[in-house]
Amino acid sequence: MIDPVELARAMIRRPSVTPRDEGALDVLEAAITKLGFICTRMVFAEEGGDPIDNLYARWGREAPVFAYAGHTDVVPPGPLPDWTRPPFEAVIEDGVLWGRGAADMKGGIAAFAAAAERAIAKGVKGSIAFIITGDEEGPAINGTRRMLDWMAANGERIDHCLVGEPSSNERLGDMIKVGRRGSMNCTLSVLGKQGHAAYPQRADNPIPPLMKMLLALTEVPLDGGYEKFQPSSLQATDVHVGNPAANVIPARASARFNVRFNPAWNAVSLEAEIRRRLDKAAPGARYELTAVCTGDAFLTTDTEFLTLIEDAIREKTGLSPERSTTGGTSDARFIKNIAPVCEFGLVGQSIHKIDEHAAVADIEALAGIYELILERYFSAYAAGA
Predict the structure, then answer these.
(1) Percent of the chain with pLDDT over 90
(2) Catalytic site residues?
(3) How crowded is the C-beta side of 373, counted as CA atoms within 13 Å?
(4) How much is the pTM?
(5) Exposed, middle or buried: residue 274 (CB in 10 Å: 0-12, 13-18, 19+)?
């Protein structure tokens, strides 16, 4: 039998900081191959870029197909001396598993592997799939998106998907994610003319218009919110001139900002609004704007599926989870294009922090919740149910 805590520890001991896998997927593949999963490894890379290792696995050939999506890559640990326990040794103390990836999200992956084993042993009818990437914490170019392309080309379809991101807020089961805001990364450069600071009339200083533009972008909210979503948020993340001389007016000034937007906007309408504000703030200013949307906002509306997830959580924890769209992005933004998707996993309070951790009892309880979800899903959705 798969012990979810020990499987999580084995994966944590593989320091799979994006883009390196370091054998983390090997650990998972070895565990689920024994259950009868057919595993396909996919390595994708941009020309000259780092290769990204990914795993697609499937048990069963019948419909419906319940997919579990996640990632084995983790963010860098940061300064090692700041950790009270080494980040990749998977130490257990006082009922807590410590290590990078314990909560985000090797603990969740291990819990689902254990749940799949138990559900298979009970004779569920249908198919179970794993969509596990090594590129969620990175650019997210050579991970889930390209795996979904491969699935489409090879006739691998799914009916519903559960993403195991650490969605719980303070207690296991208090929150699920039923949607996500979109995200757009922008770089704004205002073009001027270099000159001596003592003769400003002979130059064109790009800094004042850049300041006006940033103010115009941030002083008036983009919207007042959207049903089940927070108001969209535009945050300046960097201002750069790179001028080494105190008496020289620079020829260029740049800024970067990120927008987390609700369904009131899409990539096209949001960029148009940004450009409208820039043009109004500094008429005649010469500027360059690049806007890259990494995912549109979405909301899952499959009530039957969401209720099934909630009921299983409630039965195992006694909590009625909040349906939330808060937080950053996840690979659910890609999966929602092919199937209804929901996110549920461990408590996320320590993710990306020094001393990331997860309670051992929570990992074991999560496996039980996932097991119940699988049982009820196939009972409800299998042919003839």
Answers:
(1) 96
(2) 73, 136
(3) 34
(4) 0.90
(5) buried
